[in-house]
Amino acid sequence: MVKILLTEYVVSTYGLNNYSYISLLAEAYAMTRSLVKVLKHAGVDVIITLSNQIHNMLGRDIKVDDVVIIEGNYINVLEELREDVDYAIAIAPPHEMITIVEILRDKFLGPSYDLTKILSDKYEATLMLRKCGLKTPLTLSAYSSSEKISIDEVSFPVVVKPSMSAGAECVYIARDKDSFVESIRKITKCDPKGYVVIQEYVEGFHGSISMVVYNSEIYLYSLNLQLISILNNRIVYNGNVLPLRNKDYVQVARSVVEKIVKCLSGLKGYIGIDVVWNDEDMYVIEVNPRFTTAGVAISELYPDLGKILIGYRLPGKERYLGNLVQGYAYIIKNVDHIERNCLDSSSPNFDLCLDKLITIGRVAEFKDVLNILLKQYGDLVKNLAYNITIVSNEIN
Question: What is the pTM of this model?
């Protein structure tokens, strides 16, 4: 039987030191559980890595063939595990992802090391995507807050973010020079190398495209609505609703994934593409060379995702998720409920805290999701980057 290593960096290293990725913990745990479920459905043996603290608190909720408990050096453990498995699926923030892919090498069910390295750097990735003929926001880069940055090419507002980050961490909108300087100061502390990326802010619907690709062939893809809010000039990821079924938007999404697959050699496995679209075009914001939170919602609708992730080709010609399943799935990250004390693994309510942070569901129609958002998450809807109540018919 095929043996798969599933390793997610946040749940594998949580509690080992002064932890900086605590805000990603709920998503990390949700992705791990979803991947275990669909991989077991695919009939493979699954080995996962968990930190000792996560295993003690949550390990009972994840049913796998083997759990490797991380108590020391995570990277050393991966080097040992690599020899014991057929393939590996890895999830990590960009900086750590590069190291992990270098270790896993040909066992990694994802892009090549060189391509992962480029895609993990938001500035370098944007330059490459532009060469591929994709529409991207005008983008600048700087090394530090002390470096003189010319923004004459970009009119306010602009998006300011680390070159390497995950989950919309440390991403701000600067609407004038003062907020721009302040954003630069904050963001240089978030990036592992102190690099800052400045992009023009694109008005429109925020979304993502999830796709699985092998041998330059698209095995599955889905256009997803992202729930992106703006709080105190900070861009916050609040979840996804998927799959969208507006034929025009799906056709544009198909064109985007075809261009990316044709242009980027070494692309493989699950890829997440962040996009913003409006009446003019669909802009590619970044490409994530790994499983993303939208995959959690896909797993709710499509149990065969696990088979596709390990390279099983679907019979028939249909590849769009919206034509393969009925209904919609959603994942909502309840940012207002995040409390660091609650997310301390020594807290007696640690597991309950995680359940509060992520809400996952399935409904028959898109309007059902809209009703849930309006009734239960009014503040989230109020702060969305677009007006979902006006455009709900158009996006779907």
Answer: 0.94
